[in-house]
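Title: Comparing notes on inverse folding

I've been comparing how different people in this forum approach sequence design from structure. To keep things fair, I'm posting one structure and asking everyone to reply with a full sequence. Here's the target:
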């Protein structure tokens, strides 16, 4: 499953996949995000070692195989993202680098909220609340 197949899919949750260092840094950014779909299945977005954005079939509720050793990784909610029920994806926007490699994916949901995942040294996740939804 790729980004192009996400339009009209309903996302019920986005979870961060975190590496749990011995110090347990609560400000750590996720190594990946997992989009969990209403109609079953999931999709992972993560930074590749070449700083491109990798897209992989998700394994929710199991951690991806690259999370090794498994006890050093965990799913957690991502601060600033709604915990659940983001809704239907109405648009997908891709950004590529000068070599044509995917480096960012933006998802727009019904109502106008947006989630973007950008690759780099670490994965950056941003959430924009739809106008009128801000409290």
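Reply #1:
Here's my take.
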């Amino acid at each position: 499953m790729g980004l192009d197949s996400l339009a009209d899919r309903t996302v019920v949750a986005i979870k961060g996949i975190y590496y749990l260092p011995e110090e347990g840094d609560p400000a750590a950014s996720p190594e990946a995000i997992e989009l969990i779909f209403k109609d079953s299945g999931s999709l992972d977005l993560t930074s590749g070692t070449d700083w491109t954005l990798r897209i992989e079939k998700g394994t929710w509720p199991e951690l991806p195989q690259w999370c090794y050793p498994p006890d050093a990784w965990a799913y957690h909610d991502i601060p600033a993202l709604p915990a659940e029920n983001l809704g239907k994806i109405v648009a997908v926007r891709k950004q590529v680098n000068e070599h044509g490699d995917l480096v960012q994916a933006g998802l727009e949901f019904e109502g106008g909220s947006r989630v973007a995942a950008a690759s780099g040294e670490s994965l950056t996740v941003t959430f924009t609340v739809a106008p009128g939804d801000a409290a």
